[in-house]
Every structure is written in C-alpha cells, then in structure tokens.
Amino acid sequence: MEYRYLGRSGFRVPVLSFGTGTFGGSGALFSAWGSTDVAQARRLVDICLDAGLNMFDSADVYSKGAAEEILGEAIKGRPRDSLIISTKATFRFGEGENQVGSSRYHLVNAVDAALRRLGTDYIDLFQLHGFDARPPVEEVLSTLDNLVRAGKIRYLGVSNFSGWHLMKSLATADRYGWSRYVAHQAYYSLLGRDYEWELMPLAEDQGVGAVVWSPLGWGRLTGKIRRGQPLPESSRLQSQTAVDSGPPVDFEHVYKVVDALDEIAAQTGKSVPQVALNWLLQRPTVSTVVIGARNEEQLRQNLGAVGWNLSAEQVAKLDEASAVTKPYPYWHQAGFKYRNPTPV
After folding, report:
1. pTM to 2 decimals?
2. What does the alpha-carbon distance between residue 267 and residue 271 come to, in Å, rounded to a whole number?
3. Residue 311 and residue 314: Cα distance in Å, rounded?
4. 62: annotated active-site residue
5. CB of 330 within 8 A of CB of 197?
6. Beta-strand pair 123-128/153-159
7. Which secondary structure element, helix H or strand E, spans residue 19, and what is its range?
8. Quick check: helix, strand or coil at residue 246?
9. CA 230 – CA 76 distance, rounded (Å)
10. Which of 40, 42, 221, 295 would disulfide-bridge 216, Cβ 3.0–4.6 Å?
C-alpha cells in the first residue's frame, strides 16, 4: 500500500482508506448503502489491515451514530497507534436548535460524543461535514484549535466546502496562528470532475490534500451499470432517497464513461472499478480515496486498484471520455495563452 502526505502536513496516509457508510444500515439512506454488523466489520477491518490500509473514515450521521459505534467495536483491542481514524460532524444530530452546524456548542459536544462512540481518546482527522454560514469563522477555527491543543484531535479538515469558504478559513487560521485545515473530503470521480475547476488549484496552492468520497460516482461505476440494461437489484440507485442524496449525473454521460472504462479494463485485465479508482490515484492533490464495501468480495475488488498504474494514453482516453464543458469563468480562463512579453 502506497502512503502519501495529507496535504502539506507531516502526516502520511494510505492512498486508499475505508469508508464506514455501510456500517449499521439504519434509515432510508443508509439502509440502501448496506447493513454491516460488528462481526462483519471486524472481518472487513482485518482484510484492510492485511492489505496495508489502516485509515477508516466515518461520520456521526452515518446510521445516526451506529457506524462510529460499530467501527469502535471493530477496532477494539488493536494498537491505537497503528490505526488512523477520521470522522465528521456538523449535520443535524438532534432536534434542538444547537444540535447542528459548527458552533462552539455543537462542535465540542460532537467531538466528545464521537470519541465515546469510537472508544478512543483522540481522532486523527476531524472534518467539518459541510459549511455552516451561521457562526463566525473565527468561532469555528478557535474552537477546533482548542480541541487540537487539548489532544482530542490531531489534524483538521473540511468536506464539501466551496473554494471561497475554504480559502477564507485558511486565511483566518493563518492570521491568528490557529491550526489549519490540511484535508478536504470532496466528491471527485470520472463522473464528477468539478473538483478540478477551483478546489484542486486551491489545494495545490495552499497544501490541502483531497480525501475523495464516492470515487465510483455514487455506485454508477461498479461495472454493473451499462447501456440498455436494468439497474442491479442490489444497487443503491434503486432507492430514490439515495439517488436524491447523491451527485446528479446524466445517464448518457455515465454510459460514455463506462464505454471507455470497459475498453481499458479489457486492455489491462483489471475491473471497471479498479480502473476508475486508479485514474483518481494519479490526479494532483489526491491524498487518499475512500472506498466502501458491503462485503469481502467488494472490498478485495477495490483493494486491487493499487500496485499498478494506467498508461498515459489510457489516462488521456478517460480524460476525454469524462470531459464536460467548464462553467464560467473557467472556460474563459482556459482561452488565454499566456506568454512572456516581447522584449523592446
């Protein structure tokens, strides 16, 4: 398993990490993902560790805390310093006015609750699950910095931020000398390359590593979805709640990308998801790609995305098949050809 630095920090993470969205399976959304129990989770963790994957990602809203609890049970008894645990908070977790967002009140309570559910003393990477415009950015960052100084969090990240949200936060942290965000858990796949337009250049400039979620396009690049064929019965896309919660995509675009993936899978002897994941691992700023699995077979399949690389020609073919028209101002900026001025 290859390891990379998490952004411009000194912290190294495996290029593949394991997402626990399938743990628990309660509620309309997460029941469509999976329903992994403690015994199954222990087995999946064993397989990950045997492959050199020791980073496990969760969130408080995954099955209303059950995913963190199951992960905590699955890692119990293992050396804590051999594991990397990341989790997220900010989405609503209760009915009260302060049970949502990134206020000092909610963040402190959310971190303490996550530590209890995970059965650990510290979180290696804590990420804001989404942007909350209500509290001042100074309140958010000073609270997180205090949690770092208290030893409850090692590194900070965000998820689903826009470019200006992230840049404002980084500038504020620099101004006051507070702990900086070193990770951005963002949606990025061959079916959704919006990350490249603004967030990737920002990440390169500011040293923020991408922690990629849904690298198979919300279950559309599993190799089971093809033109003219019905959706598999086990697909999360059978759930309208899951479809509405995930990234939107036109199915004609899906088929175009899958056609290219099929061709390259035949050339390499790899599967469609392995090719799709390998493409991501060659993109700038990507520190780790979060893979999920309902069972051992899916996990072993995804682990096969490492240890080899697509050729430059194969990457170019996938780039072309997945390209879409850039929004303004990026199409305008791409039209400029910068050159040094002619000497007088």
Report:
1. 0.91
2. 10
3. 5
4. yes
5. yes
6. parallel
7. strand 16-19
8. coil
9. 41
10. 221
Q: Which two tokens stand for residue 50?
A: 């045997």
**DSSP code of residue 337:** -
The label of the residue with tokens 């995970």 reads: 118
Report the alpha-carbon distance of residue 68 to residue 20 in Å, rounded: 8
Contact 63, 93 (CB under 8 A): no
Q: Which long-range contacts (CB under 8 A, 24 or more apart) does 73-77 make?
A: 73/38, 73/41, 73/42, 73/119, 74/38, 74/41, 74/42, 74/44, 74/45, 75/45, 75/118, 75/119, 76/119
pLDDT in the model for residue 103:
97
Residues in the chain: 344
The confidence score (pLDDT) of residue 269 equals 97
Instruction: Give 60's contacts (C-beta < 8 A, 6+ positions apart).
Output: 68, 87, 88, 89, 91, 93, 110, 113, 114, 117
**3-state SS assignment for residue 15:** coil
Closest CA to 83 of 128, 39, 120: 120
Pair 33, 236: CB distance under 8 Å: yes
Structure tokens at 139: 């309140």
The string of pLDDT tens digits covering residues 122-180 is 999 999 999 999 999 999 999 999 999 999 999 999 999 999 999 999 999 999 999 99
Q: What is the DSSP letter of 101?
A: S
Calpha distance 200→302 (Å, rounded): 24
284: buried, middle or exposed (CB in 10 Å: 19+, 13-18, 0-12)?
exposed
Distance separating alpha carbons of residues 315 and 83, to the nearest angstrom: 32
Distance CA 4, CA 250 (A): 33
Distance (Å, whole) CA 177 – CA 172: 8
Q: At what angle do helices 137-149 and 163-176 cross, to 10 degrees?
A: 60
Q: Of 3, 5, 62, 188, which residue is the catalytic one?
A: 62
Sign of CA dihedral 30, 293, 82, 282: negative
**If residue 13 lies in a helix (H) or strand (E), which one and from where to where?**
strand 12-14
